[in-house]
Amino acid sequence: MINTILFDWDGTLLDSNELINESNIYALNKFGNRIFTENDVKPFNGQNLRDVYQKLYPGLEDKILKAYNTYSDERHDQNVRLFPEVRQVLFSLKRQGCHLGVVSMKRKSMVKHGIELFDLDSTFDVVIGGDECKRKKPDGEPILLAMKKVKANFKLTLMVGDNWQDIASANNAKVKSAFVNWSQKSYKQVQQYHPTYCIDKMTDLVEIVTEENKI
Predict the structure, then answer these.
(1) Structure pTM?
(2) What distance in Å separates the CA atoms of residue 35 and residue 37, rounded to the nearest whole number?
(3) Are the beta carbons of 107 and 76 closer than 8 angstroms?
(4) Is 73 one of the catalytic residues?
(5) Whole-angstrom Cα distance, residue 147 to residue 96?
(6) Which residue among 8, 10, 162, 166 is the active-site one?
(7) pLDDT tens digits for 34-67?
C-alpha cells in the first residue's frame, strides 16, 4: 500500500532543466577560469551546488552560488513549466487520499514560490527545502523530516525523483522509490540504486497507487 508520495521538484514535477543549466553556465563562467558548456554542467543537476562549486573553485563557492541564485531567480517565472499531466495527477492522488510532499535540494522559499506560481498550494501537505537539512540528499534526512511532519509510515511511503540522489535518499530512508524517465539522466545512471519503479509518464503513478492499494 502507498499513502504518502514525496516528490523531488526540479526535473521531476517542474521542467526547469534549461534554466538550471543556463544558471550554472552563467555563474561558473563569471568566476571560473574556463568556459563551461551545457554538457559540462548537466551532471551538476540534483547535486548540492555549493559542494560542486567548492570542489571546482575553493573559496569562491559562495560568490558563485549567489550569482547562480540571482540569475535563476530573475528568470524563473518566465522559464519554467510543469511537466505534462503533473497537475491532473497530483489532484487525482489527493482525491485518492494520499499525503503529498516535496523534498528538494532547492531553497524552500523558491520551491514554495514555484508551487504558488502554478496554484498547487492545496496539493502538498509538506515542503522540505535544501536549506532545511544539515545532511542533504543522498542522505535520508530530508525524506525522514518530511515523513515526520506528516506522520508517514515507512512501508507506505514512495519517493519520486529524476536523479540518483533521490533514489539513494529513498534507500537510506528505507522507503520505496520511483525514477522518472523524463529525467536528463538515463535509467542506466540510477540503475545501481535499484529504484522500486521506473515511470514513463505521470499517470503511471496513479496506476501504481491503485495497484498497490488493492485490498
Answers:
(1) 0.94
(2) 7
(3) no
(4) no
(5) 19
(6) 8
(7) 999 999 999 998 889 999 999 999 999 999 999 9
